[in-house]
Amino acid sequence: MNPQAPPKLSLPGVKHVVAVASGKGGVGKSTVAANLALALRMAGQKVGLMDADIYGPSVPIMFGLGTVNPQTTPFPLEKYGISLMSMGFLVDPSQAVIWRGPKVAQAVQSFLGQVDWGQLDTLVIDLPPGTGDAQLTLSQSAPLTGAVIVTTPQDVSLIDARKGVKMFQEVRVPVLGVVENMSYFVGDDGKRYDIFRSGGGRRLADEIGVPLLGELPIDPRIAECGDAGEPFVRKYPDAPVSAAYAALAKRV
Ligand code: ADP
């Protein structure tokens, strides 16, 4: 037992706490976290989404929200039926948060312990990329059911993803599986193109002995939706990508 490990917080009203993690930025981790939260909601669950990325929060933009007055606004905020908490509600995302590790760790702990999450079936936590202070603190202090690792098919992303897997293994958080994002692109001709090569997510999953939970295609509308404040699965519920998210929601 690490003597410096933060105490485990208990969230008695929350049945499952699922962390969405990635070894590096830009692989679509926040996109997966947001759309997974919506897919769980659309499957009838009560869902929360906690944005633990203190330096680069993306939940406000993806949900079309901005900063609020913390003196007069009760947290979590609510949008599309999901309870939301993000540093971006407290500090304008264009204003850089310049904090050292311990303060970041403190912030994520208070998001977890001091926000009244109420009764939830699943709380999805969008972890910052990598394996720094915030990730470690959360993995140790949150009552995590498990972690989902998001990667792209390329090797460089997989090397980083392996580090993330190792961190969860060290703090004994089960890795629920791997999601390969930006797996392929289906052209207007209906053909599948493996833009970033393929099979990396499967290799990582096999290597660590966990399921490959999904292979999500590249769709330019995903980026458009993220910027427009309405996650893809809500805007295009009948699209194949949304079916892939619905399947993912059943597996976490
Ligand atoms: P991360 O959280 O890993 O840094 P983001 O979720 O912010 O990554 O995604 C990075 C960018 O890629 C965003 O502009 C997002 O909209 C876009 N994106 C993510 N997944 C896909 C996808 N499957 N198809 C197209 N664009 C995507």
UniProtKB/TrEMBL annotation:
Q: Does the keyword Metal-binding apply?
A: yes
Secretion signal, residue range per the UniProt entry:
none
The record ties this protein, via Pfam families, to: ParA
Residue sites binding ATP per the record: G23, K24, G25, G26, V27, G28, K29, S30
Entries under InterPro entries matching the protein: Mrp/NBP35_ATP-bd (IPR019591), NUBPL-like (IPR044304), P-loop_NTPase (IPR027417), YlxH/NBP35 (IPR033756)
UniProt KW keywords:
ATP-binding, Hydrolase, Iron, Iron-sulfur, Metal-binding, Nucleotide-binding
Q: Which GO terms describe its biological process?
A: iron-sulfur cluster assembly
Oligomeric form and interacting partners: Homodimer.
Return the similarity comment. Belongs to the Mrp/NBP35 ATP-binding proteins family.
Q: What is this protein called?
A: Iron-sulfur cluster carrier protein
Which organism is the protein's source? Urbifossiella limnaea
In the UniProt record, the gene name given for this protein reads: ylxH
